[in-house]
Design brief:
CATH topology of the largest domain: Aminopeptidase
Strand order of the largest sheet: 3-8-4-7
CATH architecture of the largest domain: 3-Layer(aba) Sandwich
Low-confidence stretches: none
Distance between the termini: 70 Å
Order of helices and strands: EHEHEEEEHEHEHHEHEEEEHEEE
Largest sheet: 4 strands, mixed
Shape: elongated
Number of domains: 2
Number of strands: 16
Length: 334
Amino acid sequence: MTAFGPFGGESVNASERLLQDLAARFPRALTPWRERVHLERLMCPEGEGALSRLDAQVEALLARHGEALYLLTGQAAGRNHLAFERHALNLYQGRPIDPRGPAAYAADLPDWLDFPAWLRRAGLPAWSSRDPGEGACNHLHYRLCRLAEEGGVAIRAGFLHLPITPAQVVQHHPRSPAWPTTMTRSAVVALLRRLVDHLPPVAEDDSLPRPRIGAVDQVVLPVRDVEHSARFYARVLGMEVQHRGRSAALRFAGREIVLRPHEGGGAPAVRELRLLCEQPLARFLAHLLNEGVAVEEGPVQRPGAAGPVTVVYFRDPDGHRLGVAASAGEGVRG
């Protein structure tokens, strides 16, 4: 994404102001693509040799990013909407930009012509426009496409004109419509989010090992009464209790279940927590009945992480469904 710096005696450009805002607060919606979204500020050409300086910036831009999607932005005083320019013309102030080049290049970013209607449905004024005129904005778009074509670089580009900011109205453009940067940002972030879906996938680096999870270290259960639940787990499952402020850790086999006060509405519930038993399941079942804990289901055979297991299900004082399992070969014998 590119933006122009200020020109014409102004101290700010609406596109530059948006770029600065995006750089300072990178959109959370684009975080997965952070390394692939680049923000580039271009100096707006003015004075003698202006176009040569702009052309040099365009060449450097293409050299840095090569095959990519290019969202080019600039400001347009007097407009009260986002303007999606449909073409880049081979004209700069009445003269050809490149006498040997085509008459125009069509904007070809993915879904470019569909974006205005999509944004309007979201409540943001946006329309397509035939072309960006014959100034620097048009020159930038045309020159970029022409250089890419001559160099055999496959790019897709489009130019988006933004309304100016309220501060610019006060300082330089009385009575012009304006958008606050927050409003422009919401529209452009939505646009960028749609565009990144069209980026080619990054090839996987086979030299990097895949992550390997060795075991579950900790499970957190929300409970109404930490002390009451801790006594249950100690009594029924033989776990060691370690109090930690308002919470309690249930230690077993180098792992732990943390009981924390349930502060939300409704009953705290975990769909299922299954534990492996190191003694014959029949002996554990007898212990369960001796403690007056009702068996909800089982013994039943279920698929497990290491193969079929035989499970006994019951519930803790907060209604969490607990399962204690042994390998299917052991069943309830022993």
